[in-house]
Design brief:
The protein is α/β, with parallel strands linked by helices. It is built from nine helices and 18 strands. Helix content is 24%, strand content 33%. It has a six-stranded mixed beta sheet, with helices on both faces. Strands 12-18-17-14-15 form a five-stranded mixed beta sheet, with no helix packed on it. It has a four-stranded antiparallel beta sheet with strand order 10-11-13-16, with no helix packed on it. The model has no long low-confidence stretch (mean pLDDT 82).
Length: 423
């Protein structure tokens, strides 16, 4: 029987909503005196609602589970379910409000692009610093240094300060360090979404070899169900801070996908959703809300249009903005993309609303996700994302009332093309 390497018991993490203070002692005193007299807070911005005093939010609520040595555990759930919070608690980035997490081993964490890297230090210096954080000696890091650099594929830039690295280079070096230095546990939070396809395959192969050969324990968070299916021997599903399933990977994925659709949200708040890690340093707008038009359900019948309203905030002056709507399966298989280019120019610090219509008549019956991106293009035709949310919306296409053929996705694909014509 495997040994328990991580044990979480009745873990609760509570956050206080709103700003902790006004930024200055004078502002805090003004707010306190206004509340004391029952008046409006003078430091509340116009157009926003004042935060309720001492309002609390449970990011995790009485979570308990064990992780055995050598497990590859997937942690899945919708945005805001508590996945990243749980990983931060296990990495000791923050502490639980209640409960305990016992970890028997050293942890290498990849919670976001460049975690643990100092931007002013070179790649070489950061490798040694990460090794020191894990408790390794300089000699131990030196022994594995060449292997780390070779795996990362950034030999030419290893003596360059990492602040000049692209997000892809960050990920490559961070994964190389985490996978080669001596730690019993690897924690990854959606970081491989930034790497190119060839490097992702290389990482999956390395993680499989690491688990099989070294018995390394891996905790993996992702919205990409294909990678979860390939990597994880079991999963837990989080919903509103609670564990609703702990067991077989396929059952967990089915439960997660079903629960996503059962919410049947026709209006989705996009502002608090997780963004791809590569956007952190170059996000120029914020998608605020997706709202389905003319329907009170996320189920579509044959021939219906997907009409929606999109609201976003322009954080900078944006010229020649475009929108991209990508349809994928719940397993992240790309189905098709609709574009609207040259929407116009938008001023800084303005909120914009637009209505859009999307023809989904070619889709076969099934469940789909919708990715939404607003972007600009450079002189070479490449897209420069201003903001990107996935999944922004989940919907279902129903079969015809009397289908001539029972459509099977695995054998027939996900797009139902028009009938063949005799020429």
């Amino acid at each position: 029987m495997s040994n328990v390497i991580i044990k979480a018991e009745n873990v609760t993490k509570e956050y206080r909503l709103g700003a902790i203070g006004g930024g200055t002692l004078r502002g805090d005193l003004q707010s306190w005196y206004a509340r004391l007299r029952g008046r409006e807070d003078p430091n509340t911005k116009i157009g926003t609602e004042a935060q309720i005093k001492n309002s609390r939010f449970l990011a995790l609520d009485d979570v308990s589970f064990d992780v055995n040595e050598g497990d590859t555990l997937g942690i899945i759930g919708s945005n805001g379910a508590g996945k990243s919070t749980l990983l931060k608690l296990m990495s000791r980035v923050t502490m639980p409000t209640k409960g305990t997490i016992k970890v028997n081993g050293r942890i290498a964490s990849m919670l976001e692009v460049g975690t643990g890297f100092h931007p002013e230090l070179t790649g070489r210096e950061n490798v040694y610093m990460n090794g020191a954080i894990l408790g390794m000696t300089k000699a131990e890091v030196t022994k594995k240094f060449d292997e780390i650099v070779a795996f990362s594929e950034i030999e030419k830039f290893i003596d360059t300060p990492v602040k000049r690295y692209s997000s892809g280079m960050y990920v490559k070096l961070a994964f190389a360090v985490a996978s080669h230095l001596d730690s019993e546990i690897m924690i990854m939070d959606e970081v491989l979404a930034v790497g190119d396809m060839q490097f992702q395959k290389k990482c999956f192969s390395k993680m499989t070899d690491t688990v099989n050969a070294d018995g390394r324990t891996i905790l993996y968070v992702s919205h990409n169900m294909n990678t979860v299916r390939q990597l994880c021997n079991r999963c837990i599903v989080l919903q509103a801070g609670k564990v609703i399933f702990n067991g077989d990977t396929e059952q967990a994925i089915r439960l997660y996908l079903d629960s996503e659709l059962c919410e049947d949200k026709t209006v989705v708040d996009l502002s608090q959703m997780e963004r791809p890690k590569y956007l952190k340093r170059r996000q120029k707008a914020t998608l605020l809300q997706f709202a389905l038009l003319g329907k009170d359900t996320c189920v579509f019948s044959k021939g219906e249009m997907l009409n929606f309203n999109l609201r976003w905030k322009n954080d900078y002056n944006l010229k020649d903005l475009c929108i991209r709507a990508e349809v994928t399966t719940p397993d992240d298989l790309a189905i098709g993309t609709a574009f609207l280019t040259h929407m116009g120019d938008f001023d800084e610090n303005t909120v914009t609303e637009r209505d859009f219509g999307m023809d989904i008549s070619s889709l076969a019956p099934g469940v789909y996700n919708l990715r939404i991106a607003i972007y600009q293009t450079n002189g070479y035709g490449s897209a420069l994302s201003a903001d990107f949310v996935y999944p922004a919306f989940t919907f279902k296409v129903e079969p015809d009332e009397k289908p001539e053929i029972n459509w099977r996705h695995k054998g027939m694909g996900y797009v139902k093309f028009p009938d063949l014509k005799i020429l």
